[in-house]
Design a protein that fits this description.
Blueprint (H helix, E strand, L loop, with lengths): L1 H9 L2 H23 L5 H18 L4 H8 L1 H7 L5 H28 L2
Helix pairs in contact: 1-2, 2-3, 2-6, 3-6, 4-5
């Protein structure tokens, strides 16, 4: 969340928006790993991407927009308006999270005696 807020403070427009989308998926990936520490990187990335896409596609129903009008938290978590390019940027975030997670897992495996 700090990275997302930092990007919004340092940049604006599409750069901040799409970086925020990617970081949203990285956050979900991180939460998956915290809940299931032994999860494989590809599984965690796939789950994070699936959740991100479901949230984005749910915006087509209007339910998130209605919830966003009632709650700032809902607006932050669910968004309000469908934007097709977001789907791509969620995949970018999942790929980034997968790459970092994979490298960390490999590094731990190499460090063991």
């Amino acid at each position: 969340m700090a990275a997302g807020l930092g990007v919004r403070a340092a940049a604006g427009g599409d750069v901040a928006k799409y970086t925020g989308d990617a970081l949203y998926t990285v956050l979900i990936h991180t939460l998956v790993v915290l809940l299931a520490p032994r999860v494989r990187p590809l599984t965690a990335a796939g789950a994070a991407l699936a959740v991100s896409w479901v949230v984005e596609l749910a915006q087509l129903t209007g339910v998130p927009a209605d919830l966003a009008r009632r709650s700032a938290v809902a607006r932050l978590v669910l968004g309000s308006t469908f934007n097709a390019p977001d789907l791509l940027w969620y995949a970018v975030g999942a790929a980034l999270a997968w790459a970092v997670h994979s490298r960390l897992v490999r590094g731990r495996a190499l460090a063991r005696p």
